[in-house]
């Protein structure tokens, strides 16, 4: 089984200098690529000068996370692609449990390791934690992370189990599955594109796993922080895209209506907090969704849509009303 680690980069020379060495040191017999999204800094020059064993893919434009990886992957020869953020520090033997899982569980198509916080290493990190799930209305959350609440890693998620979505911060995917699904939806640009990819994989009958015996540390926020209104815009818009594309038609229209109402409440909350840029980000997200609705609707695949896709009915109600922020209390297996 051949794994290729592919790091998407855009003006990330500082991040590559800091975190690429761990990938090289702990990924023996693995091809490592840096896929550059038309950077204007010295990223590519730095890698060529200091790490000649690392292969360079130079994309012609900055198409964001989604198009950037789609463009790069046609140049990668491997059985398993590892999509790795440039701000991730990997650990010794991080690849061994992943290889074992793909070998022993043949129907596993996508796998993610445990994602811990690089700045607070005994806590889970926002982008992925111990595996992703969604609620009935399409809100994503993780084992170990519900909204902004991050759990301490006490070994409670050291298992291997099926999840709904794997984080793009560190995602392993079989080559044939990535290309069968035609990669990420480039219209997302960034954020939530991995949820859409995994949702489509689920609709195709594939299994997505979390493997807790492999762990990496993620800095997070190196592209857009959680407080950036552009991230608010992309998250709200792209979630509506995913619901449109991946739910049975009647269900999709009901959920979209409810989400638009709840998004309006979130916008009003931002308004009362005087966070005007986030208020307008939601407004712009809805306008973009309306403009592109027909296009997204045409992307619906002729497949068996999942009906039991959610782990809980309303993460918003549980978190903000009942004050539940622990995954094991929220979701009873």
Automatic annotation (TrEMBL):
Belongs to the glycosyltransferase 2 family. Residues 5-181 form the Glycosyltransferase 2-like domain. This is Glycosyltransferase 2-like domain-containing protein. One of its GO terms (molecular function) is glycosyltransferase activity. The chain crosses the membrane at residues 252-272. PANTHER family: GALACTOFURANOSYLTRANSFERASE GLFT2, RHAMNOSYLTRANSFERASE WBBL. It comes from the Bacteria. Keywords: Glycosyltransferase, Membrane, Transferase, Transmembrane, Transmembrane helix. It holds the Pfam family Glycos_transf_2.
């Amino acid at each position: 089984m051949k794994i290729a680690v592919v790091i998407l980069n855009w003006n990330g020379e500082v991040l590559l200098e800091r975190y690429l060495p761990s990938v090289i040191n702990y990924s023996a017999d693995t091809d490592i690529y840096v896929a550059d999204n038309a950077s204007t800094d010295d990223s590519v020059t730095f890698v060529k000068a200091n790490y000649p064993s690392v292969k360079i893919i130079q994309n012609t434009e900055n198409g964001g996370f989604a198009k950037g990886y789609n463009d790069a992957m046609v140049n990668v020869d491997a059985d398993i692609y590892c999509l790795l953020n440039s701000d991730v520090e990997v650990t010794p033997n991080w690849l061994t449990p992943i290889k074992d899982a793909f070998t022993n569980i043949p129907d596993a198509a996508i796998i993610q390791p445990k994602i811990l916080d690089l700045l607070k290493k005994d806590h889970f990190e926002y982008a992925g934690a111990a595996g992703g799930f969604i609620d009935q209305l399409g809100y994503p959350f993780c084992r170990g992370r519900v909204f902004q609440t991050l759990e301490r890693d006490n070994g409670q998620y050291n298992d291997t189990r099926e999840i709904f979505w794997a984080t793009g911060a560190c995602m392993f995917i079989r080559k044939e599955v990535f290309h069968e699904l035609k990669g990420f939806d480039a219209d997302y640009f960034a954020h939530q594109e991995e949820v859409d990819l995994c949702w489509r994989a689920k609709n195709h009958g594939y299994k997505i796993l979390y493997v807790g015996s492999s762990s990496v540390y993620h800095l997070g926020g190196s592209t857009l922080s959680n407080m950036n209104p552009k991230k608010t815009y992309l998250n709200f818009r792209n979630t509506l895209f995913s619901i449109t594309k991946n739910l049975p038609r009647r269900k999709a229209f009901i959920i979209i209506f409810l989400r638009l109402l709840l998004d309006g409440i979130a916008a009003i909350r931002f308004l009362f907090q005087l966070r005007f840029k986030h208020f307008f980000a939601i407004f712009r997200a809805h306008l973009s969704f309306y403009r592109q609705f027909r296009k997204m609707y045409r992307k619906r695949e002729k497949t068996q849509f999942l009906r039991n896709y959610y782990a809980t009915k309303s993460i918003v109600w549980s978190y903000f009303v009942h004050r539940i922020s622990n995954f094991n209390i929220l979701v009873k297996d």
